[in-house]
Amino acid sequence: MSKHSNEDTSISHDVTDSEGRAASIDIADADPETLSTMVSDKDTATLQRLGGTEGLLKKLNVTGEMGLVPMVQNDEADGAASSASLSTAASRNAELARELAAVQGDDTIEWLAEFDSDRKLYADRVERYGVNILPPSKSRSFLGLIWDALHDKMLILLIVAAIVSLAIGIYQDVRVTGDPEDDQNVHWVEGFAIIVAIAVVTLVASINDFQKEKQFRKLNAKKNDRRVRVTRAGQECLVSTNCILVGDIMHIEPGEIMCADGVVISSSNLKCDESSVTGESDAMKKSRLEDVEKLHADRKNRRK
User: Fold this and answer.
1) Sequence-ordered alpha helix ranges (H) in the chain
2) What is the pTM of this model?
3) Which pLDDT tens digit goes with each residue over 281-292?
4) What is the rounded CA–CA span in Å between residue 165 and residue 51?
């Protein structure tokens, strides 16, 4: 999903599965299910019920100017309790990050250290909403690729021919004819040679498919890992798309591909290409909720 504007700001609501319990920050109404339904259904009524754009910012404990602010522990007891909660409830989040790093083929990549740091700085938020990482899809096993290769029509024909040839050869070898030239017991070699050829072709094709799939998954994972501008603690910074959190104030530039769902805070002539999601070829205009309501109110007043 691409958004085109001079410089637009949105608040991220990328809600993924999380095994965390209730967080200590005051976001009771902005639960993951509500946010997920709101952005997927484009439900403006839910956004209005949350108090509009400003009300949503308050419930997520962020501001347009400051963005996310790192969690501050009151005392050592709170810090110990939070660390224990993070190590258990957010273990799935860490597992997702490790799986993605394994797919990318590098456990020392830069965003992984950044991710571990964010899990500590924004523990409550990560615990409640999860992380902006989709579970990597499971790749086909090597045996599965071999099974797929054996479904080739030419190989099926060769397998049938090999079985028939091998059966005839074994029959000719076990029968007694009395002819010395016919008792050499080598008639089975032809059928066996066909089977060996089938095995070689199948293994080579499966190995090539396995390597290509592994490289494709690695390249695709690295392609999706890019850096975007967000506001955190009152400063603009670049973070990996894998480290985007719910409540992040993102600065969207022309032609940028969105890495998360969001609600517009401010924009100027913002249009979004949603063709990959909805099939609509025309770019959809996006505006702040309050601006749309004001525009509708002005139109009603002019009609009167």
Assistant:
1) 32-40, 44-49, 52-59, 76-89, 91-104, 110-121, 123-129, 142-149, 153-174, 189-224, 275-278, 289-303
2) 0.62
3) 788 888 888 888
4) 78
